[in-house]
């Protein structure tokens, strides 16, 4: 399984490493990494770490952390129709700024490739430090993100619902893992993976999904 994780304030890390299980590599400023699926606890620890790092500059206007997962092998890459999964946790001091709008991949010579959120949930941040530094208004969202050959090295940006457009989340790695096999192209017929395939990958790589979305609905 291959996993690329980007946790972003204004910093991003793109790393490739193959392993039987999902690999989550993330960086804020110190190069820390984790080789485990993303849980709610792990995300919360990252949020707290960011809040601790920037509390002297608080309150920050807005912050987004994101985690991007490659399919585990070529078979899953094909079943996912050339895509992986993007998880975004955003905070703002202003309720109306969330959820994020128009998640876009900027491809030179082609234009913007837009991906819409598949699931979004808005909550009030419970952690006092995170709330005071990053913002009390929180949105967690799940996206399907393409790992097409034209996407390598491109920028990932989003618009907040109001006040802030073209917010840079980070950049895709300059090349994608060889184990994915031949990469799809934006010129190929665009297809969505089945809900069974997508949900299986989502549950495996993002146990945070159950904690936030499914528990909330119970």
Can you walk me through this structure?
This protein has 218 residues and is an alpha+beta fold. The protein contains five helices and eleven strands, in the order βββαβαββββαβββαα. The protein has helices at 40-54, 74-79, 128-134, 195-205, 208-217, and strands spanning 3-4, 24-25, 33-34, 62-69, 83-92, 101-107, 111-115, 117-124, 137-146, 155-159, 167-171. The strands form three sheets. The protein has a five-stranded antiparallel β-sheet, covered by helices on one side. Helix 1 (40-54) crosses helix 3.
Apparent shape? globular
As for the number of domains, it is 1
Number of strands: 11
Low-confidence stretches: 1-33
H-E order: EEEHEHEEEEHEEEHH
Q: How far is it from the N-terminal to the C-terminal residue, by CA?
A: 31 Å
Order of the strands making up the biggest sheet: 1-4-5-9-8
Total DSSP helices: 5
Structural class: alpha+beta
Q: Proportion of β residues?
A: 25-35%
Q: What proportion of the residues is helical, as a percent range?
A: 10-25%
Sheet with most strands: 5 strands, antiparallel
Mean pLDDT across every amino acid position: 84
Gyration radius, to the nearest Å? 16 Å
